[in-house]
Specification:
Elements: H1 3-18, E1 24-27, E2 33-37, E3 52-54, E4 69-75, E5 78-83, E6 88-90, E7 92-99, E8 103-110, E9 114-124, E10 127-136, E11 146-152, E12 162-166, E13 173-177, E14 198-202, E15 205-211, E16 220-229, H2 236-245, E17 248-255, E18 269-275, H3 282-310
Antiparallel strand pairs: 1-2, 2-3, 4-5, 4-11, 5-6, 7-8, 8-9, 9-10, 10-16, 11-15, 12-14, 12-17, 13-15, 16-18, 17-18
Length: 311
Amino acid sequence: MSSAAVGAAVSVALFAATSAQAQAMITDPTSSFSVGIGPNGELYDSGTGVGVRRLSDGYDPLAPGSPRDSWGVETSGGSAYGDYASYGTLNLTGTTQSFGASSGTSVTTTSVGVTVGQSYKFLQPNVVKVTDTITNTSGGPLTSVVFQRDIDWDVAPTEFNENSFGKPIAGNVNGSSYYGFENPDPSVPYGSSCALGCNSTGDLGGGINVTLSNLSAGGSDTITYLYGISMLGESVDGLIKEIMADGGYYYIATQSSENGAYPLLGSNSAIIAVASSAIPEPSTWAMMGLGFAGLAFAGYRRGRKASVAIA
């Protein structure tokens, strides 16, 4: 049996073994999009076959092929990761999960002195926020803390031959990739780096590695990732605007390549991004809008009074 066949057999066996563990599916409040959550907080629920799905037509760029999303953490105490469909797990000792209809949490303990808490909530019908909180449980300080998430997108109608692109890294982003099957261990440098910017076509996806704060005993730090897929008829430019409005400051975007590479536009797209942890919730955006409207009206009234007085 070839090494590729052996790898495929191991992947199938791993997939079958993990599929029996706790998984869940959440649906946005408008019942337009669903997201599956794997046994250690990765995206994809094998029980329902849901990755990140647009329910109106079934478009799901995570489900085809090997539905791979992963997370990994590295500190001075070592590395740990959860990788549902590809690399398996490293140094994980248990995961507890709690889910409602449209949100949920996963908490994973490790043998390297940290726990990884993950929460899932929709910011838009087609954009889910994944908040990853790394807490030091080692009893001593931990340094060199980094965290990453990687996803393999297969974007219809050109599954396995999509176009991924991104700008040079910025902020606390330590590295990025346009490939969907990078090693989930953050101590392993990305092989298909987008650190200087990229625009490639192939069987691709996206990955983002971020540097976090050093952790004192009992301390924690948080990074927010955004996953999104296009609304029906929305271009990748529209999806990027949504992500940026939701607080995203760095992204790797992926689109179908039937018309060529970006800035030419495909019919479907997907994105992974990192964002500020202080992201307003949809209700907060609405209240802010009312507040701005009130301020504008107050300014209008003051202007009217001034005009009358002058007259």
